[in-house]
Amino acid sequence: MTSIQLQNVSVEFPIYNSPSRSLKNRVLSVATGGKIERKSDRLVVVSGLRDVTLTIREGERIGLVGHNGSGKTTLLRVLSGIYIPTHGEVSIEGHCISLINISLGIDPDATGYENIRLRGVMMGMSPREIAEKMDEIAAFSGLGDFLDVPFRTYSSGMQLRLAFATSTAVRPEILIMDEWLSTGDEEFKGRANQRMAELVDATKILVLASHSRQLLAANCNRVIWLEYGRIKMDGAPDEVLSAYFGC
Ligand SMILES: Nc1ncnc2c1ncn2[C@@H]1O[C@H](COP(=O)(O)OP(=O)(O)OP(=O)(O)O)[C@@H](O)[C@H]1O
């Protein structure tokens, strides 16, 4: 059964070389959603997440909301295995793909085809799976003969087409996103939107962080509001989004 379980998870970023003496000797809540704490004379830490306990089950489409610095990206990175919590336990059952950075693994000097392989490996695809999907990814990218030349010669739109086509070629059980990926010119955008909708439909658990009420209301069946790295509210989208957006 696909599931995610977080037990008392905290993520702290120690700040070395910080002007710690200029920070007051107490917890500082900044105007945004972040928190800086002076632990001792020598140690200043920024809290990303604080004591988060959370269970996500199959079928749930989770939306994350919160002010800048409230911990949304930190949580997505913990779920993607990029950050190991400073405290607490994370247990993830199911094949998980993160679309937080779709250009991760891309080598500017490698060709389009080589980059499809590199990115495929980064996402945990086997060489055989990559070979099976190669034609479909190449066709979806619409890059034609450009796939034989180095990535660095592509326009920024072409680079995104390649990263998008490759990153959305797998069907994970758990999908982690921080935006609705939509890229390219009008023609590509239409196809990209459809591909994203199919990907989200096929996934068993979605975790999507966004500042867009419309996007969260359209795609989520549960919304979690983070503030200062903690869960402030967790419930039905209508209820949480109304409370967060204030209407
Ligand atoms: N690499 C890092 N080093 C130090 N502090 C960090 C790091 N990454 C995040 N933080 C801190 O952790 C807190 C949470 O940041 P995070 O990026 O998770 O917020 P967010 O909710 O995604 O914000 P936004 O809406 O602006 O993207 C912030 O106070 C931030 O300063």
UniProtKB/TrEMBL annotation:
Residue ranges occupied by any ABC transporter domain in the UniProt entry: 25-246
Gene3D superfamilies: P-loop containing nucleotide triphosphate hydrolases
Family: Belongs to the ABC transporter superfamily.
Keyword Transport on entry: yes
Extent of the signal sequence: none
Alphabetically ordered keywords of this record: ATP-binding, Nucleotide-binding, Transport
GO molecular function annotations of the record: ATP binding
Name of the protein in question: ABC transporter ATP-binding protein
Alphabetized PANTHER family for the sequence: TEICHOIC ACIDS EXPORT ATP-BINDING PROTEIN TAGH
Record InterPro entries: AAA+_ATPase, ABC_transporter-like_ATP-bd, ABC_transpr_TagH-like, Bact_Polysacc_Export_ATP-bd, P-loop_NTPase
This protein's record includes keyword ATP-binding: yes
Ranges annotated as spanning the membrane: none
